[in-house]
Amino acid sequence: MAKVLVVTSGKGGVGKTTSTAALGAALAQSGQNVAVVDFDVGLRNLDLVMGAERRVVFDLINVVQGDARLSQALIRDKRCETLSILPASQTRDKDALTPEGVARVMDELREKFDWVLCDSPAGIERGAQLAMYHADQAVIVTNPEVSSVRDSDRIIGMLDSKTARAERGEHMEKHLLLTRYDPARAARKEMLSVEDVLEILSIPLLGIVPESEDVLKSSNVGAPVTLAAPDSMPARAYFEAARRLAGEKIDVSVPVEKRGIFDWLFNKKRVA
Amino acid sequence: MSFLGNLFAKRQQSSSAVARDRLQILLAHERGAGESGDSELIQKLHKEIMAVIARHIAVDQDKVQIKVDRTSGCSMLEIDVEVPQELLKKSGGERQRA
């Protein structure tokens, strides 16, 4: 029986899709069966970020409406065989997702996989609510920036009131994933620090993903950063986060800026 | 110049501290607005008290601080209004604080 996880944020562009791909791949790389599901109907991108855009035949809406079987719509990743993608529809709109249909698909996914990661659309409307409704746990992706933190706070409130778990009176486990963190700017107090964000949102920290060129490079070539650049800082942060999701107790490493004399001379920054 | 600039900049609050404070005030407000019934009352009280004060003095909205403290038993609404010095002199130096 799978654990269903929603990756959500409220605000767009903070790294939900990147994080869904990276966490999903990291869990799958440890040998667990993982499905990543794109709920962003009309603006699907998980397939593109994962390099499966040319292999999409059927999508979530086809399965929800009974036009295709789940096994026909799932795309198995070519680099990691325990990782599958269920793409969203690009042409239909989100009204085609019925709550009953989504519930049926989620039940089927739960039986087949160890982990189901739902990539939520931005916003707090129907699409985002459907993505979170069946979740057992939530990963809230937040940038250290005022609008993102505010929207995350709003989403946390919704997770506690508008999900199946909340309706049953059960606790929804929530994890904060701080992305695009720039340790140098945080050190200069130009950016909200990890402590600031944790104090404001008061949910446990899953990981800190530093701002890095490797993230864009990976999405350019259509691979989760944990597969494309497994030794990079962001990939290491995602691997750690995945282990924490699986229940391991490991300390969150805070990326710190390391500047050697040469970096200083040439005014280069690097993150280590 | 930048050295001098840095020297002076340190005395100011850092932008991240400003961000944190703004968020804390805003979210304290928004978190209440979504759920409990008492926040509606507090909003109403806030509006009406402000209306009464505005009848007597011109209130600069930027100089009004609103704080809501929520403990399990009760909520406390604190409205801090800054009154210009000249006004106080005219009215005979009374303390005006709501």
TrEMBL record, chain A:
Extract the SUPFAM superfamilies matched here.
P-loop containing nucleoside triphosphate hydrolases (SSF52540)
Q: Where is the CobQ/CobB/MinD/ParA nucleotide binding domain?
A: 5-225
* Domain of life of the native organism: Bacteria
| InterPro entries named among the record's database cross-references | CobQ/CobB/MinD/ParA_Nub-bd_dom, MinD, MinD_FleN, P-loop_NTPase, ParA/MinD_ATPase
This protein's UniProt keywords: ATP-binding, Cell cycle, Cell division, Nucleotide-binding, Septation
Q: Which GO terms describe its biological process?
A: division septum assembly; negative regulation of cell division
Taken from the UniProt entry, a GO cellular component term is:
cytosol
Pfam families referenced in this protein's UniProt entry, alphabetically = CbiA
**Which amino acid positions bind ATP, per UniProt?**
11-18
Entry GO MF terms: ATP binding; ATP hydrolysis activity
What does it do? Answer: ATPase required for the correct placement of the division site. Cell division inhibitors MinC and MinD act in concert to form an inhibitor capable of blocking formation of the polar Z ring septums. Rapidly oscillates between the poles of the cell to destabilize FtsZ filaments that have formed before they mature into polar Z rings.
Subunit structure of this entry? Interacts with MinC and FtsZ.
What protein family is recorded? Answer: Belongs to the ParA family. MinD subfamily.
Task: Provide the protein name.
Answer: Septum site-determining protein MinD
- The species this protein belongs to is Gluconobacter wancherniae NBRC 103581
Taxonomic lineage of the native organism: Bacteria, Pseudomonadati, Pseudomonadota, Alphaproteobacteria, Acetobacterales
UniProtKB/TrEMBL annotation, chain B:
Any matching Pfam family: MinE
Keyword set includes Cell division: yes
Keywords of the record, alphabetical order, are: Cell cycle, Cell division
* One of the GO BP terms on file: regulation of division septum assembly
Q: Which domain of life is it from?
A: Bacteria
Asked if Translocase is a keyword of the record, the answer is no
Family statement drawn from the similarity comment of this UniProt entry: Belongs to the MinE family.
Q: What does this protein do?
A: Prevents the cell division inhibition by proteins MinC and MinD at internal division sites while permitting inhibition at polar sites. This ensures cell division at the proper site by restricting the formation of a division septum at the midpoint of the long axis of the cell.
**Protein name, as recorded:** Cell division topological specificity factor
What organism does the record attribute this protein to?
Gluconobacter wancherniae NBRC 103581
Its ancestry begins with: Bacteria, Pseudomonadati, Pseudomonadota, Alphaproteobacteria, Acetobacterales
